[in-house]
């Protein structure tokens, strides 16, 4: 949550709001001590001595959390607990009587914890802070779940190289299989270095199959909090564990009959790999704390930048899960091996940034194109997107130069770089630059230069003759 305050120059500054805690307690001295300690820790607190006063404060104060005594002058705290649960207020119950029955009933009704009096204030503070952290994580995961449930943006695969043509052909075949049969679709594993666009291919595959109008759920196995990953994937029943105040379907169920994309599958803990394997084999999922199994209808796509075969040999990834995932494997090529796609992507990201920020049209100088082609792009397409976007945003001239790109220069001054004097560069000149650059990298080996550019040797010879390039 954010609060907005005004400054003298009429600009707004956003500050985090203090979490609100309502204390319902009839022992005044104890209540004052609790309020004072929580305020010192940065919380906003209100105190009610009766159920009646507490119900008024629930509406007026709108607390994020409640500390609820079980024995109050006008009734039992359990009578108020349902009000807190209905408003999603995390509640810790307190009792001086050690009444196990009340405590058990409170947990069943939705309380997150209970404490026996006398209560240590530091222990109470630790419990509150732990709950606050868990709530923040859950809010973040809820937002991610809602955001990624469907694919809202059109997805494009940019590139005409042989490697990308192969990827398109595989996608077309998978989409064809999807259209031919209602049977459970085979698992797809997308492998490749970080930043090669594995998530883009997963979304593109979803968008071109029969279930394109169904949910697309993206699960980043590397970023899910370790303490929540099992319940997030498989779901849980109310009361299955501390803080499980309501029944919740997991991300696997949330995909319904759409697509479940398990990104960075190699980061999934070994303990959960067996459970995931069971889901893939039997196409059934069971929530934590439940005895009921639910069918899994979603297409499963997994992605990894790790060598799962090697990991399985080393005991760091289950071999049976690897073989179950490795039904259809798509290998994403690194950007450095995509030849002519490098400049195509650079122009695409340039135009995308110009359109997004309503910027004027820019051109790449010949030096910039040389830098783009000669750079190894260790971060692949993701790195290129950020570098090109930054250059476009910061460039105030009609041309983007190699200085604007800020890339390390991997080649010295050469014949192709000498064309920098011919500005602005035409399309014909740009093609000649690409041919000469590829020949230089290949040391005048025509076949190797053709492979660098992702074209055939015959096409390479034709274009060399077209531009009068003789060896």
UniProtKB/TrEMBL annotation:
Pfam families, sorted: AAA_lid_14, HTH_8, Response_reg, Sigma54_activat
InterPro entries to which the protein is assigned, alphabetical: AAA+_ATPase, AAA_lid_NorR, CheY-like_superfamily, Homeodomain-like_sf, HTH_Fis, P-loop_NTPase, Sig_transdc_resp-reg_receiver, Sigma_54_int
Sigma-54 factor interaction domain: residues covered: 157-393
Modified residues (4-aspartylphosphate): 69
Keywords linked to the UniProt accession: ATP-binding, Nucleotide-binding, Phosphoprotein, Transcription, Transcription regulation
Record-linked PROSITE patterns: RESPONSE_REGULATORY, SIGMA54_INTERACT_1, SIGMA54_INTERACT_4
Response regulatory domain residues: 20-132
Signal peptide range: none
Protein name (record): Sigma-54 dependent transcriptional regulator
Organism listed in the record: Methylophilus aquaticus
